[in-house]
Amino acid sequence: MTPETFWLPAAKSTVAQEVDSLYMFMVWGSLVLFVLIMGAAGYWLVKHRRRPGDEDKLSKPTIHSTAVEVFWSVGPLLVCIGLFHWGVVSYMNMRVAPGDSVQVQVRARKWAWEFEYANGKITNELYAPVNKPVRLVMTSADVIHSFYVPDFRVKQDVLPGRYSTLWFQATEAGTYQVFCTEYCGQSHSDMLSKVVVLPQAEFDAKVNEDDTKGVPLAELGKKVYEGKACNACHSIDGSAKAGPTFKGLWGKSETLADGSSVKVDENYIRESILNPNAKVVKGFQPVMPTFQGSLKDRHIEGFIEFLKAQK
Ligand code: CUA
After folding, report:
1. Is the CB of 191 under 6 A from ligand 1?
2. What CA–CA distance (Å, rounded) separates 11 from 13?
3. Rounded CA gap, 304 and 116, in Å?
4. Per-residue pLDDT tens over the stretch 41-88
């Protein structure tokens, strides 16, 4: 695996080496050709510049050279065919996941990532076993996002209404940065996560652990608030964001777009999490995505307790 360089972070997946080799070949190849061609052009420009007394030579045209023309046509063609072959083989390698891959569902939503494993466990960071292929089946609850792990050299758009897939095999345990690389609105640049690569036994333990058990409700609610990126649109200090602030929200009577009013209680909060656009507060846009299927009842109850505490 290549170490970190001036250009790229250290390569930490099985496909990263190949991506780097192809990339570096093209960068250095282009640089060498650029210097050679520009150097030759410059040299001849000076060497054959017009001098006094050259006028009589101007009528003599340069004779066509078939050999040179074949060389400069066939040479680059062969290089391009070689590059194409190299690219196709690498691309197919990166697109087709091995049959024994661990499958993880990925849901993108403004502005957080969510990962669901075979047993139904949901996390906000992606856990993956080391030296095992992991296949991500990704979809978006709202707009187009893009899943990108620079250390693995993998990136794939995540679309609403359809699945896109991506696979990787991490070669070293560790924590790797995840970015969203498709502009998806105000907090796009905060749409971050991590891939936590663990030895198989630790991965199994992590995926099977019930991390809601024994956690006080309000604390669980705080995790939901941060982990599901509610904080991107709802402040707890009263400052204005895309959605109503949570400060002092509990127990308030809110006026809706149609002029009717609703009291902020358990049922209104629950409805607003599962069916956010049913009762939108006057002055706000119906833009919140649903959290149906991604929060368990205990999470919602925890969130309600957290909200009550925001006085
Ligand atoms: Cu999600 Cu940018």
Report:
1. yes
2. 6
3. 23
4. 999 999 988 888 777 666 666 778 899 899 989 999 999 999 999 999
CA torsion 261-265-269-275 (nearest 10°) is -50
Place of tokens 């209404």: 161
Residue with tokens 């308030």: 252
Which numbered atom of ligand 1 lies nearest the CA of 181?
2
Say what the pLDDT of residue 45 is: 93
Radius of gyration (C-alpha) of the chain in whole angstroms? 29
The answer for residues whose C-beta is within 8 angstroms of residue 275's C-beta and 6 or more apart is 290, 292
C-alpha 236/C-alpha 230 separation (Å) is 10
Does 178 contact ligand 1 (Cβ within 6 A)? no
Asked if residue 180 has its Cβ within 6 Å of ligand 1, the reply is yes
Predicted confidence (pLDDT) per residue in 268-282, tens digit: 999 999 998 888 998
Q: What is the mean pLDDT of residues 294-299?
A: 84
Number of neighbours of residue 128 by Cβ within 10 angstroms: 24
Q: What is the structure's pLDDT at 285?
A: 86
Q: For residue 62, count other CB atoms closer than 10 A to its CB.
A: 5
